[in-house]
Design the sequence.
């Protein structure tokens, strides 16, 4: 054998990754950002020196075309939103792993074929 992983082992690994992907829960893409602002009313607490002002949380994510979407996130949902962001990172890691194992599997399958003694890496493919 040429040191490549066994096709059976790669298929098993792909099956495990697919099962993990199937178990991925709710996820969201973006970054949580805290914001603070002063409302401008002279009698408001935010007008006092040293007061951080009014604030909250936003989920910011890029969209196609170079824009950004900001969604307000209530303080009561911060924990769940953080879990969803972490789940998105898990999803991305698993998707990258699935891509990697599929590439290795395709290559291993290609390497096991014999086309009239020609090396498929050097253009030894049969004509269709």
Sequence:
């Amino acid at each position: 054998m040429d040191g490549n992983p066994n096709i059976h082992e790669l298929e098993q690994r792909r099956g495990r990754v697919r099962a993990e992907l199937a178990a991925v829960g709710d996820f969201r893409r973006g970054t949580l950002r805290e914001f603070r602002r002063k409302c401008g009313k002279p009698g408001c607490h935010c007008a006092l020196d040293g007061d951080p002002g009014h604030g909250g949380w936003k989920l910011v994510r890029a969209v196609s075309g170079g824009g950004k979407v900001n969604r307000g996130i209530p303080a009561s949902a911060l924990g769940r939103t953080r879990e969803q962001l972490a789940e998105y990172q898990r999803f991305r890691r698993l998707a990258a792993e699935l891509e990697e194992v599929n590439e290795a599997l395709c290559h291993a399958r290609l390497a096991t074929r014999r086309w009239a003694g020609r090396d498929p890496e050097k253009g030894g493919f049969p004509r269709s």
